[in-house]
């Protein structure tokens, strides 16, 4: 950790004194006059008979499970009475409750300007043997900060309330007193707590949600923490490592709804206020946000002589025992990643924190992650090639500080698309600060992969390239920002055309080469519509650049088709169980459409020649699909007709042959499909398929049976395969199914329909 960050932590540490996560106060029982509908007024302390009468009026207690409310007595076994059936004399109780809450607020570390407001929720009753396992309370409102449990005096044993946070525990047990007392226990909502099993009698409590009201402002007076100020100032003035921001992790957890400057819990409040004072003194921006922290640890399992002995010497009859992740020992931190979520500035404005990269050297915390319960945890035991690992994810709040002078740099890091738009608009409007912002943007934007994968940001980057009015600067900005998108948006056509018109065709060619390389990698992101609009709207230069894109799409599509040819099954039955078209066939169709849109004659003819000549070995139906999907505008017929006729003619011939093969006679069980694999077992399989027999038995071991199983399924063959496990090796039994004739009728019907369409298309051509 940066030495100055250690000083920041040390300066903040004393501010935690006097604040805790749970606190208890007691008041005389005479102040509470409570009655229950159907039962009447309760006399305190409660007797065992009163406890039984309360249970008779109650319902089984549920608990929150994700988005649902469920009843599960293995998690929560107890009773509750709704607040609508409770009546409290507020004239006697409310003044006493307000006084106790003021003391509890101070004990919880809340500022003097904060007021705790109780919202009655229910009455809970736990009888002998009943309990509530460790859990966290649901924050029912945005202002809810914690819970208040009002324990009514009764004769019972057990039922202790146990509250935990940050590795510390606070426990409230029943106290025997001469005069009956009511115990009020307040704790923050992110604390894990439980009700221990009741041993005898009845434990009865009123449960409130605690909201916080505060008039405090996020703005602070001049810093009264000179030690903290010196540490923060020294941190930002340090040159090694580069320090863009300071991220201080808070102790308590918050939801997006209840995170606020005036709703901070425990020690978080005074520490954040001190940091805000320092921010005002040092001209720093301060932002409050949520952070998701992921850690991956190399682990050691605890030594277990019994397990070690079994591993060392082996015993096939013993079952392996899983290691509990609570028992493993994290040793080395392998990976550490922090993601800041959207936060709030001092004026409650939305902060551009979502995309900020956070380095480990920028983070500090008074309470380390290891002392906090992780939101998620996953242990992966030893797998042979690598050791055991433990993944943990923490959800924490944080204060983020950075100098005012680096504010735009933070915008670039957190919201690249927004930063690009600010610079584009500033340059076009001639704003004085635009050039300085541009300098910061150019320095940092290339590290932002999000620009390449954000359609709006990428289109705005193209706009900025034109606004620069400097070819070298535009090339330096855009060449590293090749689109990492499934589909380039049509909204990028206009700025792309503007670039080509401003800097020339050679600039467009250079950009495409930098983005996609010599072999057309990634050209599939441009749709035929995008190509058409560039061609029609970009003048002569636009047409030539569009032709380059179409040519690249053809190269990429043919390379993919040929590369995948060895993996595909040419069986006519293979595609009958799946919907849609293979991706590589769709790529061919789209590349041809782009050639038409460009227009680009040479790649168009080259693509059709490759497909017709069998590169990639399209099935007859796939070939027909490509041919029938080809739409030629009138202006393209002069030079495209000959190649289109060749494609449609080849498809018609292939489909006609397929229709003839599918004309199966009754009693004909021969199946003719291309043979992919030439191993002896596949030779036996295809000999059976070509023959008249419906069944065959092949003695094969497991690996060989599995191989044939895959071949049959990949080809979509109507052949049932079972294993006769008598003898050794087992016998693989194959049987041609009656559905063979049905499938062939379907294939023939489809082929004849395609043939009719292809012949009509040839007449039109």
The radius of gyration over CA amounts to 37 Å
Head-to-tail CA distance between termini: 74 Å
Give me the secondary-structure category. Answer: alpha+beta
The CATH architecture name of the domain at 15-211 reads Sandwich
Q: What fraction, in percent, of the residue positions are helical?
A: 25-40%
**Would you give the CATH topology of the domain at 15-211?**
Jelly Rolls
Shape: extended
The level 1 CATH classification of the domain at 15-211 is: Mainly Beta
Number of strands: 30
Uncertain runs with pLDDT below 50, 5 residues or more?
A: 216-223, 305-322
Mean pLDDT: 86
The biggest sheet amounts to: 8 strands, mixed
Name the beta content range. 15-25%
**Alpha plus pi helix count:** 23
Could you walk me through the main structural features you see in this protein, from its secondary elements to its overall organization?
The chain is of the alpha+beta class and 765 residues long. The strands form seven sheets. Strands 20, 21, 22, 23, 24, 25, 26 and 27 form an eight-stranded mixed beta sheet that branches. Strands 1-16-12-19-10-8-4 form a seven-stranded antiparallel beta sheet. The chain has a five-stranded antiparallel beta sheet with strand order 7-11-17-14-15, with no helix packed on it. Helix 11 packs parallel to helix 13 (493-503), helix 13 crosses helix 15 and helix 19 (620-629) runs parallel beside helix 23 (739-764). The radius of gyration is 37 Å and the shape is extended. The chain starts with a helix and ends with a helix.
